[in-house]
Amino acid sequence: MAQAYKTEFDTPEIKEYPLIPHIRKGAMEHSKPFVAKAQHQESLGFPGELVDNWQQVALAKMAELLGKYRSIRVFLDTCVKCGACTDKCHYYLGTADPKNMPAARQDLLRNVYRRYFTLAGKLFPKLVGAVELTEEVLQDWYRYYHQCSECRRCSVYCPFGIDTAELTMAGREILASVGVGQKYSNEIITKVQKIGNNLGLPEPALANTLENLEEEIKDDTGVDVRLPLDEKGAEVLLVTPSADFFAEPHVDGLMGYAKVFHQAGISWTLSSYASEAANFGIFIGNYDNMQKLAQRVRDAALELGVRRIIVGECGHAWRVAYSFWNTLIGPFDFLDPDYPVPQHICEFSYDLIQRNALKFDKTANDHRILTFHDSCNVARASRMGNMPGGQFVIPREIIRASCNHFHDMSPETIHEHTFCCGGGGGLLTDDLVELRVKGALPRMEALQQVVDEFGVTHMAAICAICKSQFSKVFPYYGFDMDMVISVHQLLGDALVLGETH
Ligand code: SF4
Ligand code: SF4
After folding, report:
1. Is residue 412 within 8 Å of 498, Cβ to Cβ?
2. pTM of the full predicted structure?
3. Atom 2 of ligand 1: nearest residue by CA position
4. Ligand 2 pocket test: which of 82, 106, 153, 163 has the largest number of ligand atoms within 8 Å of its C-beta?
5. Which ligand has an atom closest to residue 442 CA?
6. Which residues have C-beta within 8 Å of that of residue 232, sequence separation ≥ 6?
7. 169 touches ligand 1 (CB under 6 Å)
8. Which of 65, 269, 469, 471 has the fewest CB atoms within 10 Å of its CB?
9. Residue from 459, 467, 376 nearest 425 by CA
10. Which ligand is nearest the CA of 89, by number?
11. From CA 368, how far away is CA 364, in angstroms rounded?
């Protein structure tokens, strides 16, 4: 497959009232991410390049997945083409390519499934839309399963709850198993397995970064706030996306977590072995790789002797931790049973706020007018705290505790209806920048509305991918890249350090 990507394209126009676009067939047929090199395929247990008998291997993998996950067969058998999901995908809304309609994306797999795994498809393929698995079909899988961020928005509107994200994961796993995995995700998984984080940041560099951040906090506040690394016997192990160690605005969020731990008087540590909360194993749909990455967290927790594990601001990391850790790396009988496992950093801070253990000077954020972007993996693939909808309430309550000015975006774009930032699901790579910019359109339109109506200056988020994606795409739409901010930066800026309460 050709290794080139389009750097020039038209940024969609922000309209006052979002419109469903007219179909433009093949509008994104040119979009596909770079294919993984042999070394990054083989390091994850996949063949290095397209195998000679790829049809046979692909169908065997499909049979395996159909046997392992009943949901896949149910999703492939159930769609009645009611059309309720048609205009719900941000990639369809931003690109107008009909293959980015969720049901059409599902059909890429469904049509092949019918041909080889159903009686009707074997006997009367044309009647039921069954198709042969040809090289052209394989190319379409590669293109369009990398134009889905596995965000699950479509499933909220489907009367049967068909989850396109699961089919995308299955499609990607089949692709990797025949030798055509995605470069970006596979390289990252390899780095985590070898070094411990997505960035390939070794322990000395991480230690140095944390020392610099301690100095920065001291310069700003005059208070000695620690960011400990590999401290045995700490109460809490914090696992956070490695973007928190250096990227903007993520790093300000990390300093915010440190201030909360400091003020709460709770000992904590980061781990150089498990220095990554992100788990790209989920993006490529591969259980074994997801398990291997998660195992590092369990091993680090045992090695350090902590009693609690808290997860930093990262959407899909929280999805993996909340929804899958228990079966991937549980049981957690070595941790303190009085606390949830895992616990989200927002849950942790919210609990302290509820107990009046933190004191705020909200005027510190008075130069900011906030809105909040619900990250899809938190909104639709997990929850937070012990109340229904806690994942929507808790981050907003933290913002309200820290800021005087907050306005939500339009209801059909928040909570479980939230739009993906456009860069989730392993698509946060420059070879997909056109897709990322176009897929961000629905969120940009909702943001523009609150900018116009309330003068919003900043959009807070609790996902490392959302923060990186918005920093990149904001300028395409005329917004300042610094408009995106970590929830824990807001909290950290308003937190009064000193005597604990
Ligand atoms: S899961 Fe998200 S990105 Fe994928 S088809 Fe559904 S709405 Fe689109
Ligand atoms: S909403 Fe569900 S049943 Fe209707 S077309 Fe979409 S996937 Fe099929």
Report:
1. no
2. 0.96
3. 151
4. 82
5. 1
6. 303, 304, 305
7. no
8. 471
9. 376
10. 1
11. 9
Q: What are residue 239's DSSP bridge partners?
A: 311
Task: Provide the residue type at 160 as one letter.
Answer: F
Beta carbon of 313 within 6 Å of any ligand 1 atom: no
- Residue 73 identity: R
Closest ligand 1 atom to Cα of 153: 7
The number of residues making up the chain comes to 501
**How confident is the model at residue 383, as a pLDDT?**
94
Asked if the model's pLDDT at residue 3 lies above 60, the reply is no
Q: Which residue segments constitute the domains of the chain, with CATH numbers given?
A: 38-181 (1.10.1060), 190-494 (no CATH)
Sheet architecture: strand order including 458-461 = 370-372, 458-461, 484-486
The predicted pLDDT at position 7 comes to 67
Where residue 4 falls among pLDDT bands split at 50, 70, 90?
Answer: low
Mean of pLDDT values over 169-187 = 98
From 154, 157, 375, 380, the mutation candidate for ligand 1 (largest count of ligand atoms within 8 A of CB) is: 154
Mean pLDDT over the full length of the chain: 96
Nearest CA to ligand 1 atom 4: 148
Mean pLDDT of 184-193: 95
